[in-house]
Give the backbone structure.
Amino acid sequence: MSSYQEATARQRIAGMLDEGSFEEFLPPQMRLTSPHLPQLDAPVSFDDGVAVGRGTIEGRKVFIAAQEGAFMGGAVGEVHGAKLVGMLRRAVDERADAVLLLLETGGVRLHEANAGLIAVSEVMRAVLDTRAAGIPVIALVGGANGCFGGMGIVARCTNGVVISEESRLAMSGPEVIETAGGVEEFDARDRALVWRVTGGKHRYLLGDAQAIVSDDIRSFRDAALRLADAARGAGTGLTLEALEAEQRMLGSRLERFGELEDPLEIWEALGVDDPHSVPLLETDAFRELAERHREGAAS
Amino acid sequence: MNWQTVADALFPQGHRIVERNNFLSGEAQVGGQAVTVIGTTAHTPIGVEIALAQATAILDTVRRHPGRPIVIMVDTEGQRLRRRDEMLGINSYMAHLGKCVELARRSGHRIVGLVYDQALSGGFITSGLIADACYALPDATIRVMGLPAMARITKVPLERLEELAVDNPVFAPGAENYRRMGGVAEIWHGELAAALEQAIAQAGPEDRRAELGLERGGRKLSFRVAQAVRTGSDVQAA
């Protein structure tokens, strides 16, 4: 076992790809930094918080990106976003077998907010362009910072999401919601509640993640490959049929769970006998339970 | 700004747009052809219901009116900040809306966004920013967050932010800043109906915003960095 959560962005990449196969685009030696951070006296990073490149996994030509949660929470600025877009375009040019996005991010970087927002939008469109070109794009969410903001939307624009129980996928962070609506709306310090609402198990049960794995780099890799291979077989692009199915799933979710207050009630409505036991289950036991109750997951 | 006033000016040849819980939908005539209109009003936050309603209207257009242009009227204070929406997976509802717009684009629909009042952060990514091109009225507000909130979070004094905001489009609110960065195609000062007709005629599926940002000097690195990564070359000088 090698913890995904505790690894840096480059350690995650190294653990995913065949040994020595990673070739980084615009590596830190190029010293390409954000032009916007210094004027706000904020520190810069030589990779602007994301590593992008290509390599191989068991013979597959894989393009990969990993956001570094330790630098500004993995937030997306102008350079960071452009590196993601450039990698996705190159994956299309070079007919990649798969693209893996190792997302760990709070979303838009506020220090360069407008550029970050447009960049996230460009990443979203580039992901969909890549899928349309026949290349599967898979999102991996396993970092301590989770995947939030606009990048939480991007994750759900991919062919599939692999998540760990420990990680989180959502849009607005609990702190933001608490600031806006008060502690009664969302108590950001109630860790159990935060994990029930945004954590990997809930996402998997709802059908918003297509695989849940233990906090192990190899497990992430294997699950991502399975999703990528399955997507290539089924067709990677958007179709009316798939979006109609997704619309039915999201509509039915609203009807069935829209009046409920807590994920525990949703799990119960899904038929889980003892919803309180869900947070305690090990990943394998949880997956076994979830297979009987989870919602289908179109994308 | 009142959505009906804007709609009357955009669609002088007629429109049948209805508002239901701040969600706009219907059809209108532009240059003699029918278009689908969706949007929001009253700065409404985008929650799971409204995201799904917009997506439903888009898919309905793809099914029933192949090729018909789509106009997105934007007025929102951003994504709804509720625990319930997060519990239900609001990011998936937003992503679904974005994917429906993308499917429409790939099926030959031209898609034009117009920020007629306000556009914020998450509510903008899956509305104006997912269109082929997004336009704005001169008084439109576009931002991720206001400078006072930004000062709190970045710990940079408000006075310093205000000073930098004068000639730096990267974090200060405003439609003009988004235009300089390529996120907004143009700001419409003149007659709206003619501008919309032209926008629909010019709309195309390619994302040229980074190039526009470079041409206009508001986002100097984005296009060059993406190109450098794509071609395996060094970042080209501006």
Q: What stands out?
A: Residues 3-205 of chain B form a domain with the 2-enoyl-CoA Hydratase; Chain A, domain 1 fold (CATH 3.90.226.10). DSSP finds eleven helices and nine strands in chain B. Strands of chain B lie at 15-20, 23-30, 33-40, 70-74, 111-115, 118-120, 133-136, 141-143, 186-187.
